[in-house]
Amino acid sequence: PLQRETKNNSPLNKGGWGGSPSLKTDPILAQLPPLPQDIIPQRPSETLPEQEPVETTPPTEEFLLPPTPDSPEPIPGEVPQTIIVEGFEFEGNTIISNEELAEATKDFLKRPLPFAEVFEVRSVITQLYRERGYVTSGAIIPPQVFEGGVVKVQVIEGELETITITGTQRLNQEYIRSRLALGAGVPLNRDELIEALQKLQLDPLIANISAELGAGTRPGSSVLSVQVEEAQTFFIDLSLNNSRSPTIGTFERKATLTQANLLGDGDDFSISYGNTDGSNTIDASYTYPLNPRNGTLGVRFNTSFSHIIEPPFNRADIDSDAQYLEFTWRQPLWQNLAEEFALGVSATFQDSKVTIFDEPIDLSPGAEDGSTTVNALRFFQEWTQRSNTEVFSLRSQFNIGLGILGATVNDSGPDSTFLSWRGQTQWVSLIAPETLLILQGDVQLATQSLLRLEQFGIGGADTVRGYRQNTFLSDNGLLASAEVRIPIVRLPELEGLLQIAPFVDFGTVWNHSGNPDPDPDPNVLVSTGIGLRLRLGDHLSARFDWGIPLVDVPTSDRTLQEEGLYFSLTYRVY
What is the value of pTM for the model shown? Predict the structure, then answer.
């Protein structure tokens, strides 16, 4: 059996890049089959979150609209009983032009009018505003002396005087008020205000919202009274899955604590701990809203320690440590009930170190003394369009590696100075009640060879089912999948649904010409299979997949994952 040697006499002190042993020079590793590529830890997943069609126009309670401003009675003796109007002089209108108002009132011109009929002009103008959604705007004919056949018409364009909010507990009222103010321009438009309310109804922090619009203290002003029921924001989730790499143990136990409104400003905090038989991982994130248009600033930290337990590599006592730090700014440029387009940038700092018998070892091209450090800026663009029956999402991200702050920089081969692009898409269609068609695509293109931390992986529960996690890692790659979810059992009393889910997965990878590693052979994975999806309200979700590989690759068949069987179970304790 292999014995651990002391550092002074260890053969690991001989050869390798930068004084560290390499895969080719280490005498212990030379006795083993080729190492799996995913011994080097990967950065946290960047897959698109799975979405489902939702009601994009949730109902909002009817508003109690303020009365149209009344016209004061004219001063007796100032006007005749019948007049001939040559024109109207409009004051106070900003949203509808004088020309449009003149066109709407032309039937009142150049004919004898009983003075009472002149007052109908205000109704015509008020109706014109109402048709365009300005339901709190109107017109009056103020007391005046009629000269030259011209009648003065005063337009009062409605505005929101104040917003009163009741029912909040943890959530800061300014969070709600600032978002409603986006739909409360001058003049006040009913449709824009309703859309602002409906956006809040879709906000995960709010369970229900209703509003009444009442008359304010001034003519044309209104008071919006809002009643809010906050949603639960504190959660504890426990989950089990077999989606981790066999090198560290596929079976993961995980606990996640989330407070989606930590300080009352709509700020989200989440921390999780997960472990397998060969790894421990802590992941924490915090996101703070910057403005009522849902711009955010976030930070994420992930640290993991892994020990290789997969035979026969466990004989080599291989350990790895990895840290990941990310700062992200994201800002929607436009956002409505059916569509959102956002831009953002992330600054990421990631480092990994691999040792064998406590000595650093270079297991992948570009590593220095067992360490790999990547610092990068990542510019992303996100577009989502949704309706009651479908959701379509696109995400583009440009990754620019920076050779600063201790990043890995080499004279040749992969290092932290790189440029790559990743594009992701997802289309989810409700083709029948509770029946979903899900199409997904993912592609990465690199202008040069990449460090293992940045490479594209295929194989596993989230890419190509039927193969082990990260079967292949390369500089470039393409993924595509199609899945249909068909309901087979409904449990209304438990808010439960069981769906059967046939699927097809495809993936291919290839390296840049400058990468010292050859392309995998074969470099294509294809599978088909069937899965089950179970949901019991908001408290339990489960997934089981059986993938059948259609392209043969070497595998040990030691785990359920390598036999094409995947499962995950998430239970919401609180």
Answer: 0.88
